[in-house]
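As a next step, the fold was encoded as tokens, giving this record:
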Amino acid sequence: MIIDTHIHLNDKSYNNDLEEVILRAKNSGVKTMIIPGANPEELDLAKEISSKYENIYFAIGVHPYDIESYDEEYLLKFSQDEKCIAVGECGLDYYRLPDDEEEKKQNIALQKDIFIKQIKLAKKLKKPLIVHIRDASLDAKEILVKEDAKEVGGVLHCFNANSELLSLSEHNFYFGIGGVLTFKNAKKLVNILPQIPKDKLVLETDGPYLTPHPHRGTRNEPSYTILVAQKISEILDIPFEEVEKITTNNSKKLFKID
């Protein structure tokens, strides 16, 4: 069995064939899936999908691009649902900062504030974090350590291959590996993969984004997690079945699911 720890099944791109997508995943051996929170407006659908399917779970959280929508009271309404197992995706993303220097400073300050609030929320709820980091590795690491996020731990979603983040494995953080690993220009991630402790590896798709080779250019979906597991098997020179066992056990331990 494989667990896709990050799949946006509530994205509109799945509206017309969600049943088929889920069936293909299960037929491929991807039995369990986790829908991350991103835009609060999509939480209702995430909850609905999770309640309909036995092995699909969801998280509450606000992506750095949607921080203006952060409403903790609203998130708390979903937090007690039995299928809600994490907080995130939350974090820092400096890729699209405003050009104006003052606006840039304000945006970064707000991102940090909302990130810290979600770490505190995770600790309050005793749920692990799903962390998004883009072009902000050092700031994100500093906040996770300072806020003692290891109390709940979490996953560095779509791990960006920054070696500075590897030490977070000692702070109860796992590393989400997805389709990027199969890209021809992913040499940095390929080289750093063996440095990640095996007991801290988990799989993800981030569908509908970051579709692995050879399907790049099409919509990503959970059945493609198999391709990522195969690539890990190749790079680490271990059997596919071992990758499957390791990542599944890690995911179950982190998210406290059977």
Summary: The longest strand covers residues 84-93. The beta strands are 2-4, 30-35, 56-60, 84-93, 129-134, 154-157, 173-177, 201-203. The mean pLDDT is 97.
